[in-house]
Amino acid sequence: xxxxxxxxxxxxxxxxxxxxxxxxxxxxxxxxxxxxxxxxxxxxxxxxxxxxxxxxxxxxxxxxxxxxxxxxxxxxxxxxxxxxxxxxxxxxxxxxxxxxxxxxxxxxxxxxxxxxxxxxxxxxxxxxxxxxxxxxxxxxxxxxxxxxxxxxxxxxxxxxxxxxxxxxxxxxxxxxxxxxxxxxxxxxxxxxxxxxxxxxxxxxxxxxxxxxxxxxxxxxxxxxxxxxxxxxxxxxxxxxxxxxxxxxxxxxxxxxxxxxxxxxxxxxxxxxxxxxxxxxxxxxxxxxxxxxxxxxxxxxxxxxxxxxxxxxxxxxxxxxxxxxxxxxxxxxxxxxxxxxxxxxxxxxxxxxxxxxxxxxxxxxxxxxxxxxxxxxxxxxxxxxxxxxxxxxxxxxxxxxxxxxxxxxxxxxxxxxxxxxxxxxxxxxxxxxxxxxxxxxxxxxxxxxxxxxxxxxxxxxxxxxxxxxxxxxxxxxxxxxxxxxxxxxxxxxxxxxx
Length: 497
Fold this sequence. Notes:
By secondary structure, the chain is α/β, with parallel strands linked by helices. Helix content is 29%, strand content 15%.
């Protein structure tokens, strides 16, 4: 019956929404009326998503100056993925892909949402696709899948999957979280700089003693939800605004601590001190949710997954030793930390170098609760890796598609051409797609119609382009990438603007 219900929803997705409206809900109602009760063995699932957190920004991922004790502890209690990827190098596209289990190319959602429709138009050599503003209501999301298994669903934090409504990042009444399967959802910036940045007088340090982070109201909402009495298992998504810019902290004591770590003659000393404070604040607020899970006595029956929506911002997060940053498809833009903890199911203190990607989460969660994986999903369930990090049979290609330019407007013209490692500035990103299969990765650049080929096991910093010395491998990966893009009818940039 669960399979029939899911298939009913998928049948609805293939019809025009207005014509299928009543039929869809009739099918869904009929399926729900005959649903079996949920399994008591199904875990609660807490999905914590950071914003712009770089792969090497955590102590457990090699940072020697950023303080992240709670996330380091989470890694010690669970599984650390060393080759985890975001589905996109940019926010909205990555979040849409993660929630739907589909690539940006299949979703036709490859950039960030804006406040009005249109396309990039600033004299760039190629014409880019029109901007996608809203996550399509016909697409099945993680909370909608889990509700089929009786889950309660809740969302707090950054959405960024609808056209800005009334203000920057404002939730749409027609395409917000509650329209995509979350029963409980509340807008709240918490204590992120978004909550005070418009008032310059508030951009000063708070009078708080050392160790006091103040209250983050968004995190507190998540804590309160965890501590509620739940008759059914729940799916909670905590979508942080940290560490997205504005790069600023009001925690004077923490800012001073980071200043002490950075040489006085460092040209970006103050900027990095603010960034360090933001990373540690994120870590603290994640810890508050973990404490709530422990205090509620549900740690052993709760799967926690933590990751980031894309690589770090080049002005703050160096992403060293990886090349590139947010906005491009070098490793620094798409490789992200990912940690999973589930006591008794995921071995503690383990790691895996198997490549996984954010759009694997939907099929993984579906499989864990014995639901069929919906059709037209690109991700693969990684539950076997959860239970056996040494699993070696998991292999497949991972695809990325970014048919846009960044930065936009005059900033693009003035941006540096070179994309390096920890260079501290935003470079030019041109339309590109990429594929990783095994240890090999190919990036195709549309404007110049050229490929770059890297062997990531030997060259994780992507410094040695092997496309000329190994043309056979480059051609093979390019064909595989092209086949996929053709299969999903990907939107491509075209010559002329």
